[in-house]
């Protein structure tokens, strides 16, 4: 096996055996955590990267049995390697994520202070803390929750003190702040919420509250021990290492400190560091125990290592496994689980490389092998490896039609084949790498020939798995059709282009900067000519490239691929005036006009007053710039509009594109004052003292919303008025008591006689009212014939009217005539029925007056109603 470390490490190794490092007959059990491949083909490489658990970097050997001669086990043994780009003896270590903080002491190429580095760093460490001038030594480093705690020992003997600082690692450029200052020197510190633990080499430990460090500390001792190291294990417990090398303790929630290691198992611990889910590392320095000089080492206790519990319920760890056989001063674990340590025999930091065992080889003939892998400790992995013979190979080939140039095809993205034009008109091809039965093939066009596009005639047949015959494919190539494209820069207006070729002529109108494209299609070698047929207003547009032959003579361009022709347009820079000609205004009266500035922002806008005659704005525009001239304010008593512009552009509205001097003509006329129109109501048919409520709705411009007023017999007007052309809406709101009123006419008549229309002069609405007629109640009589006069009666029922004044009435009638208590009105439907006959008699309706329909007790009321009921003895 390969030994750990350098030459001087070899002399200090205590006990080693092939495949495992042990101490006093104890070792950490290893198990396989990877699955081997079980098949390989003749001529192919077989590779099995073996991994085991625990995944700690250490030296061990795997035994292989049953493997063929061509299969070998290659082992890369874990070796300690240097960390960071520096040389220094390190006493204290702490890690925050991947950042490693340390204090270098003598034999150092670095100055005194606290530095930061990383495992793979190639630059010198960064100084993060410089001690004060009065410092005697550092007394410890500890990181908790992104806070770096630094113990700084000052003075000596009687004036010795310790200042503990905190540095917030989460803040950029943070400065250390004083946490607490205590008498005496500090040997080690540790942090576990809610306390900071401080050991000064005496037999007691001080606990300072993190939230209130100036409060009185808690002081306690366990077995009169002083502690030279604090650290968190893989379970999150805070441990203290006794300076005597006899006991370790686990700090819980209270003042309990219990043993977790026996002194004969793990003596002289100087550092403790754990990683969740992995395990705990213990750094042990050189010391003397029971007269025996121990060199020290680095031990690892896996998270799942066997453990016992002592009488107080605390975990008692086994001694674990020695993974480094030299004395170790300090140990820490990075955020990714990498262990870093320092040794007093070396002036640097160390970590482990990754170990890899690989079973590798290439078979030359088929066969079956039963292979067994054995780990130190007895764990095995058994599997059967089957070597299969290679299948028969077949070709992937075909023919290319229409090829002009060089085509490249690919198979499975790696086998590239170049095919050139053949004199026979078709080009056969065959890929150089044959494929075996079952192997996948995927033929694609890798690179097209210039000016052509090639494709597989049957794309589905070009992908699949090889069978028991060659694969035959057909590829067709066609010329690429190119458009004549280009781009325009600096255009202000419309540009008309003319494309001429053997296909004829094509015109194209371009109205803005950017790309353009003709619809005609061309292939390689086609000639064409592009000219400017019509220039934009005020501009000159030209091709930014020229075409000449070998003699320097102008010639038509030839299509040799995608065509993109640049055209650059320039504008005439002569200033153009903007004038206004005003007509129709009296002297000393002006109309205010406004002109908007150009797009380039030379000026934004200009307001100016213009009298009768012609005058110009002070600002000017350039050809092809848009102009906008409008009326800003009308003169009092006059109304002006733009009636003409020179040169005329589209419509005479003061808008256009400058193409020379611009003149806008403005015609003005005196305003006509509108006459208010009254809204009157003529009422007929009402007696004195009665009136009908009417409402008029206001105009759209909101001068007034609506007006309600009461009108008696005669004619009266609303208070508000309207103007010709506005819509009027006059309606009845409420009839007077005892009368019904309706609109019967309007003057002038507009549409229908409904009080709605367009004002065209004064408006009069006629409303006629009539008195309401009171309905006379009608009685419902029943005349009974044939019953004895002894009080015998027949039961009758009358149903109420539709308006629900009453629903129904039941009443008994004797011989003679009597009426129901309820009445009905003319026009309502009556319904009178016999409910039940008297004993010994049968009764029926035999007549009704007035007769309506038939003698059946049903009909429409038209005066009093009498129904005759005739009864006979059974």
Folded structure, characterized:
The protein has 874 residues and is mainly β. It is 0% helix and 51% strand. The protein has 1 helix and 82 strands. The strands form 24 sheets. It has a 4-stranded mixed β-sheet with strand order 4-39-38-7, with no helix packed on it. Strands 9-36-35-34 form a 4-stranded antiparallel β-sheet, with no helix packed on it. A hairpin with a 5-residue loop joins strand 22 and strand 23. The radius of gyration is 56 Å and the shape is extended. Mean pLDDT is 85; it is low at 1-27, 258-264 and 310-315.
Q: What are the low-pLDDT stretches, counting only 5+ consecutive residues below 50?
A: 1-27, 258-264, 310-315
* End-to-end Cα distance: 136 Å
What's the gyration radius in Å?
56 Å
Count the E strands.
Answer: 82
Query: In one word, what is the shape?
Result: extended
Q: Mean pLDDT across all residues, rounded?
A: 85
Major β-sheet profile:
4 strands, mixed
Count the DSSP helices.
1
Q: Report the β-strand fraction as a percent range.
A: over 45%
> Strands of the largest sheet, in order across it?
4-39-38-7
Backbone structural class: mainly beta
Which features would summarize this protein structure in a list?
1 helix, four-stranded mixed sheet, four-stranded antiparallel sheet, extended, mainly beta, single chain, disordered N terminus, 874 residues
